[in-house]
C-alpha cells in the first residue's frame, strides 16, 4: 500500500569528514532523509522545508527528485542552504556542527494525508519548530502524526529545555521514535523502556526507542517488547535513525495502519503486529549502515532483506 505523506523539517548538506581525513558532501537533514526514504519505498511524499537557490540547494533538489519527493511551495528562497559538518570516528559514528536558520514557509497541507511527520532540528529551532508543533497539533485526529526528536544538544541551553520541547511534540504525536542517545542526554540514567512507557502514556499509540546494534524497544497499547538487530558490518551510522523512521512508517502503511480511518486500529495494536512493524524498521536501518551516508533502502531491497 502506498501512503500519502508530508514531512516537515530541515533539508541541508552534510559535509562529512571521515576518520582518515577524506571529505565528501551528501544531501542530509533528518526530516529530509525520512522523506527521501519514504520516496524510495514507493510512497507519495511532499517535503515542507526551506533551502537556498544555490549550488547546495540544487544538490538537494536533485537528490529529492531522484526519489520522487515533491517540494511544497515556498521551499526555495534567496538565502543560503543549511550545512551540517559531520566528523566520523573510527567506528563510523558521527558528531555534527550546524550552520542554519529554520523557518517553515507558508503552505497549505493536503487534506487527504495518511501521515504528517516532523522531528530533529525542524522540531527544535524556533520559529520553525513552533510552526511544526502547531501543524501536528492541528492534524491530530485527522491523520496519523509522527515525531522523531533526534536531539541535537547544540540547539538547546539545557537538557531540561530540550525535554520540555520534546514532550510537547510527544503529546501531539501518534507514533514516536527516539534513540537511546536522545534519552541518555535528556534524562541521564533513565531506563529507556521506562521512558518509552511514560511517553506512550501521554497520548501516542506507539513509542519506539532504537538502541543501535542492540535493536529497539517498543511500547504499544498491548504492552512492550524488544526486537534484536542482525549482526552486520557497519560502514557508518549516518542516516540510520532516519531509515528506521521511514521503515517504520512504511511498515505501518503496508499494514493499513496510517491515516484517519486507521487511528482506532493503531490504538488497538497487538504485540505480534508491533513486533513485525519494528522488525521491518530494524531491517531498514541495518541496510543503511552497511553503506556510506544516508542511503536508505528501496522497496525491493527492504523486501529482499
Walk me through the structure.
β10, α3 and β11 form a beta-alpha-beta unit. This protein has one domain: Ribokinase (UDP-N-acetylmuramoyl-L-alanine:D-glutamate ligase, 3-Layer(aba) Sandwich). The chain has helices spanning 30-40, 55-66, 128-139, 159-170, 180-186, 192-200, 240-254, 263-266, 271-289, 299-304; strands spanning 4-8, 12-17, 23-28, 44-48, 51-52, 70-71, 76-77, 82-88, 94-99, 115-119, 144-148, 175-179, 206-210, 216-220, 223-227. With 305 residues, it is an alpha/beta fold. α1 (30-40) packs across α7 and α7 (240-254) runs antiparallel to α9 (271-289). The two termini are 19 Å apart. A 9-stranded mixed β-sheet has the order 6-4-1-10-11-12-13-14-15, with helices on both faces. Strands 3-2-8-9 form a 4-stranded mixed β-sheet. The protein has a two-stranded parallel ribbon with strand order 5-7. Helices cover 35% and strands 23% of the residues.
Task: Annotate the secondary structure layout.
Layout: E1 4-8, E2 12-17, E3 23-28, H1 30-40, E4 44-48, E5 51-52, H2 55-66, E6 70-71, E7 76-77, E8 82-88, E9 94-99, E10 115-119, H3 128-139, E11 144-148, H4 159-170, E12 175-179, H5 180-186, H6 192-200, E13 206-210, E14 216-220, E15 223-227, H7 240-254, H8 263-266, H9 271-289, H10 299-304
Parallel strand pairs: 1-4, 1-10, 2-8, 4-6, 5-7, 10-11, 11-12, 12-13
Antiparallel strand pairs: 2-3, 8-9, 13-14, 14-15
Instruction: Output the helix-strand order.
Output: EEEHEEHEEEEEHEHEHHEEEHHHH
- What's the CATH architecture name? 3-Layer(aba) Sandwich
Radius of gyration: 17 Å
Q: End-to-end distance, in Å?
A: 19 Å
